[in-house]
């Protein structure tokens, strides 16, 4: 299956009191295995909503979603959670580590469902991969912002997901650290993981092979830089 993500005519409507918010209005998007796609667009254009649907954190109001060939448009929460855990790694803008918890334990978090004997070895391996092999015993409040985001990336990798979703992963970092994090994500993509990255920084988007632009819940432009 060469298509990792296949979205067809996705609509997402939120109800806020008596109001309806049309966050996505007919989005169709196909992402092939191994691609690096940047999603850009102004605030409120639907980027995070799209990411939540792709990441099975939310469901479309209508339209279909196939993930690695399987129809996941309308799964129950349990099945969504299982697929998420096994196949999708998330990196968010807000540093989402457990404070006062060691780097190693933070990375081990996704392995708690059916942890096997190889989990700790895998955690150390991905921490090496992100350049933090010498920080496993540090607590997350003893790290710099860039290091925290590296831990978040290691945690996203520990289950060896085929798809990495990153929502403004460099949003809180200085430009040098942003570049380092981007290079790390590119290296991970180079090893075969499909990468979908939301960003508002043109320099970051330029690293992607494809840029998808959202405006008012619709894809308005798709180009290869
Ligand atoms: P972006 O990430 O591009 O800034 P979002 O996807 O977060 O945009 O939001 C798209 C639109 O949907 C916005 O108008 C936002 O207010 C609305 N929205 C997002 N999430 C919710 C929610 N849970 N409930 C109601 N409205 C929402
Ligand atoms: Mg957002």
Structural class: alpha/beta
CATH class: Alpha Beta
Overall tally of domains: 1
What fold name goes in the CATH topology slot?
Rossmann fold
Description:
With 225 residues, the chain is an alpha/beta fold. The protein has one domain (33-58, 75-223): P-loop containing nucleotide triphosphate hydrolases (Rossmann fold, 3-Layer(aba) Sandwich). It has seven helices and ten strands. A six-stranded mixed sheet has the order 6-7-8-3-9-10, with helices on both faces. Helix 4 packs across helix 5 (145-157) and helix 5 (145-157) packs parallel to helix 6. The radius of gyration is 17 Å and the shape is globular. The model has no long low-confidence stretch (mean pLDDT 91). Bound molecules: adenosine-5'-diphosphate and magnesium ion (MG). The site of adenosine-5'-diphosphate (ADP) has 12 residues, from strand 1, strand 2 and helix 1.
């Amino acid at each position: 299956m060469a298509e990792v993500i296949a979205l067809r005519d996705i609509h997402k409507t939120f109800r806020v009191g008596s109001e309806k918010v049309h966050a996505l209005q007919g989005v169709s998007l196909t992402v092939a295995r191994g691609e690096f796609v940047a999603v850009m667009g102004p605030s409120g254009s639907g980027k995070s909503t799209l990411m939540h649907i792709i990441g099975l954190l939310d469901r479309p109001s209508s339209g279909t979603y196939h993930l690695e060939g399987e129809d996941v448009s309308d799964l129950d929460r349990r099945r969504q959670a299982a697929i998420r855990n096994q196949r999708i790694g998330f990196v968010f803008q807000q540093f989402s580590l457990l404070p006062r918890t060691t780097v190693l334990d933070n990375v081990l978090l996704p392995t708690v469902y059916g942890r096997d004997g190889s989990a700790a070895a895998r955690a150390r391996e991905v921490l090496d991969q992100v350049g933090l092999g010498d920080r496993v015993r540090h607590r997350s409040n003893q790290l710099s912002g860039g290091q925290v985001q590296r831990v978040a990336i290691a945690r996203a990798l520990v289950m060896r997901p085929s798809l990495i979703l990153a929502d403004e992963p460099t949003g809180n970092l200085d430009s040098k650290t942003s570049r380092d994090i981007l290079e790390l994500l590119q290296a991970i993509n180079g090893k075969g993981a499909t990468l979908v990255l939301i960003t508002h920084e043109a320099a970051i988007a330029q690293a992607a092979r494809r840029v998808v632009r959202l405006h008012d819940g619709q894809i308005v432009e798709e180009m290869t830089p």
